[in-house]
Amino acid sequence: MDNSICQVYEDEIQSLEEEIKLLAEKYEESQQESTFFSDEEILMSIKSFQREFQGQSKGHESPSDLKAQLESLETDLSFLMKFTGIQFTSHSKKTVEKTTNRTVRKHRLSGNCHSLSFQLEFQLLEMQNKETVSAVITDLSIIMESGEDSDVSKFVSSTEEHGNLLTFFRSLSSYAEWYEHRRCTFLHFK
């Protein structure tokens, strides 16, 4: 009788382990699908948004239309903050240099992603040639409360060197989510 009970428990344990493995795989797939978009897709979305915005801003619109647009934008922003976990708490922009085909603006951003706070400072160099506008990030400086985590420090240094904000925000969102999970797990065992 003891052997049969043990066998039932072992079968149940094996069944649960398989279920956990399947759920972990599904979770990984959903994370990869939701967080990785190609740079080309993002640029196409930005250009589409800019064209739409420029087309709408040329005409004079009624206050009710502007209010509806503002509410729509606030809804979109709220969705993005929930989706990525990134919330911006402050932003400032200052034009450093402006010529006919070149503009340099200095940006300062601060915010948090889940429970990690960050601050960014960078210059955005916009150059216009006939119909195209290109933008380059220079002088990127990132300050994060990463504690003593050397991997985060290395990542921040690499991002500052390459000036790739898209990679920074993608990685920050994923890292901060798992950082929060680890923190909650360790608090549970204390």
TrEMBL record:
InterPro entries xrefs: CENP-P
Organism, scientific name: Eudyptes sclateri
One annotated GO biological process: CENP-A containing chromatin assembly
Signal peptide span: none
Alphabetically ordered keywords of this record: Coiled coil
Keyword Plastid: no
Official protein name in the record: Centromere protein P
Annotated TM spans: none
Residues in coiled coil: 6-33
Short name of any one Pfam family annotated for the protein: CENP-P
Entry GO terms, CC: chromosome, centromeric region; nucleus
Organism ancestry: Eukaryota, Metazoa, Chordata, Craniata, Vertebrata
Gene assigned in the entry: CENPP
